[in-house]
Amino acid sequence: MTKSIKAVLNNGLDSMVRLTNILRKKEYRIKDIHMTSYENSRCVDLLLTIYEDEDTGVKRIINQMKKIHDVYDIEEVN
Q1: Which residues constitute the domain of residue 68?
Q2: CATH code of the domain containing 11
Q3: pLDDT, tens digit only, all 78 positions of the chain
Q4: What's the total number of domains in the chain?
Q5: Which residues contact 32 (CB under 8 A, 6 or more apart)?
Q6: DSSP code, position 41
């Protein structure tokens, strides 16, 4: 089963790489990443689609993402 999570990150590729590296180290399986940046904005929208199973619930992933200082406004989309 897949779930989608939307988050707002600091503008720049570094924030997205930092987030995906942390999720990879925690062995969360990412299916799709979509990043949208806006001109003259300090933030970007990131849409992650992850595989959810019994061990890796979407709430655990959201809690892990909240610990990263570059990430704001996290919510489950589905």
Answers
A1: 2-76
A2: 3.30.70.260
A3: 889 999 999 877 888 888 889 888 988 889 999 999 888 888 999 999 998 876 667 888 898 889 888 898 999 997
A4: 1
A5: 47, 48, 49
A6: -
